Amino acid sequence: MDSLEGMRQLKQQGIIVDLIVTDPPYEITNTTPGGKSEFSKSIEGAFKELQEEHLTQGITKEYLDCMVSLQSKINIYIWCNGSQIPFYLDYFVKERKCKFDILLWNKTNAIPTFYNKYLTDKEYVLYFRKGGYCKPNSYEDAKTIYFSPINAKDKKKYGHPTIKPLDFIKRMIRNSSKENEIVLDPFSGSGTTALACKELNRRFIAFEIVEKYYKISLLRLQENDQ
Ligand SMILES: C[S@@+](CC[C@H](N)C(=O)[O-])C[C@H]1O[C@@H](n2cnc3c(N)ncnc32)[C@H](O)[C@@H]1O
Question: Which atom of ligand 1 has the smallest separation from the CA of 63?
Answer without folding.
Answer: 19
